[in-house]
Structures are given as structure tokens and as C-alpha cells.
Amino acid sequence: MGLIAQLLVNMLQIGAVYVLFALGLTLVFGVMKVINFAHGQFFTLAALMIAVTMPEFTERFGFPAWVDYFVCFALALLTVAILGVVLYFVGFERYLRDLIGSFILSVGLLLLLEGVYLWIFTGAPRVVPKLLTGQVSILGGALETQRLVICGIALAATFGLYQLVNRTKLGRALRAVAEDREAAMLQGIRYRRISFYGFMIGSGMAAIAGGLIAPLTAISPSLGNDYLSKAFIIIIIGGLGSIPGAILGGFLIAAVESFAGYFLDSSYATIAMFMLVMVFLLVRPQGILGHAER
Hints:
This protein is mainly alpha-helical and 294 residues long. It has one domain (2-223). It contains 11 helices and 2 strands, in the order ααααββααααααα. It has helices at 2-32, 39-61, 65-90, 99-121, 145-167, 169-179, 181-186, 191-213, 223-238, 243-263, 266-283, and strands at 135-138, 141-144. It has a two-stranded antiparallel ribbon. Strand 1 and strand 2 form a beta hairpin. The protein is globular and about 55 Å long.
């Protein structure tokens, strides 16, 4: 029982960040019909900014590590927001609902931004200092206090996005555009404005995920690529453009990674994830909660 509880706890903490990252990607696709391969660069930039600025704040002001972390987190979100605005108006606005054009643009941006990060931050892995010490026992499974707090923030952000999409006027506009752009425009919804909001919210989700993962792993300019591949697996399984599907798919992939990684090996866990994707593409290509195209 203790082992199963530990693996479930691991699944929860891994899945919370996966879900947050995948939600941003699926929201951008749902609203803009754009598959953004540069999505992982927002994630990477947030983590790199925290890793670079946090030691400076600690040395200058001497606040507790968690205070410096949240100040640097806010600075990272602002930086990502500026980058998102620039990329949207310079590039993505020209390719709304253009899968081929946006694919070429986003792949180019992925390579460009990774090269820029490598030039600015160098390729040396960076580590964010531990924020909190101690462990918490949950149903017989042990979880570091730091990881518990980060998992809680990720789940709160996921809940906040879900509430925004389902309970607010902006959320209804986002869902209307995702469902039927022409009908939404006939109802007075400004498609380009809503696309911009959707893109910025999606980029913000990636930045929050990157900021949350920063204290838990070594950070390099290629960090986002691994998470991007897993995000695509998640939204294929959950259903492209489906927010509940992204949540379900994220925790499913985290469960596969946690259990297969323990009982078999991390390489077998990766193989199991790709086999699961192949099964869904053959049996249910629209995903668990996606809708088949007519």
C-alpha cells in the first residue's frame, strides 16, 4: 500500500506540471488553430530567468529563498509576456488558422530562440536553490514540502484556468471561437482580439509551468523540448483542443511514467508512452474527449 501511495503521489506532482504545460498548448490550438512548436521556449525562458536572477537577488537582499523565488517568478512571467506579445504580432497573427504556415514559423522560432538562449545563458546547466526543507506524508507516501507547494500551485493554476474558460465572459468567447469562428464573429466576437488573449494565456501557462519546474530540475536552453514532446502526447491522448482532455491526458501520462518507470525502467516508460499514442491514433484518433472531424 505504501509503495502504491508513493507512486500515486509521484504521479500527482509530475502530472500537475504536465497538465499546466499541455493546457497552454491545447488552448492556443483550440482558439487559433495553430500548432505552436515554440511553446516550449516560453517554458524554458521562465525557468532560465529564475535560475539566472535568483542568485543575484539572494546576494543583494538576503531574503529567504522562497521570497527571492517568487520575486524572480514574477519577473520571469513579465519577460515571457513581452516575448509573447512580440511573437504574436510579428509572426503568429499572420498565420491564424494556417496550419502549414504556423508550423514552419513555430519550428523556425523554436530553433531561433533555443540558439538565442544558448548564446545568452550558455549551455551550462543551472540549478535553483532549494526553497523549503522537510517532507510531508500523504497516504503513506512521502513528498518533499517544496514539491507539495509547487504541486499545489500548479493545481490551483489549472483550476483557475478551468474556471476562467467556463465561468467568465472571456472564457465563453474563447470557447465560441474554438467551436465555430464564423458563428462567433457573427455574434460580435472580435476574433483577432480573442486569438491574442488565447495566445497570451497559453504562453502564460507555459511560463508558470517552467517557473514551477525550475527548483526541481537542472535547467538548460533545451529544457522545454522534452516537455513539448510530452505535451503533444498528452493532447493527442486527451483530444486536441479539449481542456478536460488535456487534464486527463496529463495525469494519465504521469501515471505511465511513474509506474512504468519504477517497475520497469525510464526508457521503458518512454516506450510505453509512445505505444499508448500509437494505440489512440489507430483506435480513437480524436482522443479521449476530442471530437471527430466531420
